[in-house]
Automatic annotation (TrEMBL):
Residue intervals of the YCII-related domain: 15-109
Gene3D superfamilies: Dimeric alpha+beta barrel
Domain of life: Bacteria
Native organism taxonomy: Bacteria, Bacillati, Actinomycetota, Actinomycetes, Micromonosporales
InterPro entries (UniProt xref): Dimeric_a/b-barrel, YCII
Entry's family note: Belongs to the YciI family.
Protein name: Uncharacterized conserved protein
Length: 137
């Protein structure tokens, strides 16, 4: 099994086919979208492929270390001007092909007009420890 992170970019990814911003959706369209996401996660829980997932607030701040005894440096928030990740899901699947298939299915979540968004999702494998071999010579 391999873990993959699915990132839902609200801004910063290539444009979706149904590219109507969520703040222009009706309450019913938002409810249908969230229901699709919840049903998808529930189905993957049943197959043992769902690890976790969360929606994210649009507000965010970059933070970095600034030296011993100094407070961290912050830059932001950037809700209107930077890449915006709307949410994420971690899956644990048998193959890259399965991860791609699930990301494609998740990309079809409904948006404006109840039509699939066909949004681009970023699929990132978890970094794993390299396999080590011992030489028995």
């Amino acid at each position: 099994m391999a873990k993959y992170l699915l990132l839902k970019h609200y801004r910063g990814a290539p444009a979706a086919v149904n590219d109507v911003p969520m703040d222009k959706w009706t309450p019913e369209e938002i409810t249908a979208h969230i229901q699709y996401m919840n049903d998808f996660a529930r189905r993957l829980e049943g197959t043992g492929e769902f690890v976790d997932g969360q929606a994210l607030s649009p507000e965010g701040t970059f933070v970095r270390y600034d030296g011993e005894g100094r407070p961290p440096v912050t830059d932001g928030p950037f809700a209107e001007t930077k890449d915006l990740i709307a949410g994420w899901m971690v899956i644990d699947v048998d193959s890259y092909e399965r991860a791609v298939a699930l990301a494609g299915e998740l990309s079809a979540a409904p948006g404006a007009g109840g039509r699939p968004i066909h949004e681009w999702l970023e699929l990132r494998p978890f970094l794993t420890e390299p396999e080590t071999t011992t030489d028995c010579h």
